Amino acid sequence: MANIDWSTMPLKGGVLIPILVFGTGTAWFKDDPNGPFNPELVQVLKSALAKGFIHLDAADSYGTEREVGVTIKESGIPRDKLFVTTKVLEGWRNVPRALKESLERLQLDYVDLYLLHNPYVIPTTEDIQSAWRGLEAVKASGLARAIGVSNFQCYHLEPVPETCTEPPALNQLEYHPYLQRSDNYVAWMQEKGIQVSSFKTLAPVTVAPGGPLDAVLLSIAAKHARTPAAVLLSWAIGNNVIPISKTSKDGRMDEYISAVTVKLLPQEQEESRS
């Protein structure tokens, strides 16, 4: 495991979350927690840990928790040196049972962050509030150090504090220069102490090349001797957003990790907004 001085951001309750995440969705998505085991993913995750990543992101709906668990067990890295996030989707009606099953697949006694994955599978606001009480219960029992949500829009998030005792510590959602959220939503969450984590942060270079940011990103990347992808990750971090990166290539892992050592100038941060 490479010795990298990871910066962190504080979550509610004092838990510190590393500012860059290695994700296990998309390419390895199985849509079945107990589907065929993927040894290729284990090798990729071992490479990520060897490169220095310490924060792994999973979900019961990705079907990748077993691979994450095997990776951690075989890595030999002490549990307290890693940060593990997972999420609950269909199990929202009985969150304690869902987390127990996730922990069995992960071969862990606890997760550092547990998220309610998607409000769109939960029928009503009252059901969201009920599911959230389940997350409060697993935090109180010590099975999750911090709890939060994913894919929540403002109208999903606003009713949660009405009945909760432990407000969400984080919201994980799509965020990049081409999707910065309307009505200052990100700033609104941050003002309330809800950290923001982003997926698809690299969309301008992965799924939307040829856009107005291409030349800007290349120019900034050249000034910092980095790549456009590293600039985008650094841009998110500069906005106090925790980006999730995913790749199976060792070179890309190095590229993404290099983002944590880049600090964009205020002008560059603004230029990267598109």
TrEMBL record:
Protein name: NADP-dependent oxidoreductase domain-containing protein
Active site: 62 (proton donor)
Species per Swiss-Prot/TrEMBL record: Schizothecium vesticola
Cross-referenced InterPro entries: AKR (IPR020471), AKR3C2/3 (IPR044494), Aldo/ket_reductase_CS (IPR018170), NAD(P)_OxRdtase_dom_sf (IPR036812), NADP_OxRdtase_dom (IPR023210)
PROSITE patterns cross-referenced by the UniProt entry: ALDOKETO_REDUCTASE_2
UniProt keyword annotations, A-Z: NADP, Oxidoreductase
Ranges in a coiled coil: none
Superkingdom, natural source: Eukaryota
PANTHER family named among the record's database cross-references: 2,5-DIKETO-D-GLUCONIC ACID REDUCTASE, NADP-DEPENDENT OXIDOREDUCTASE DOMAIN-CONTAINING PROTEIN
Residues in NADP-dependent oxidoreductase domain copies: 23-269
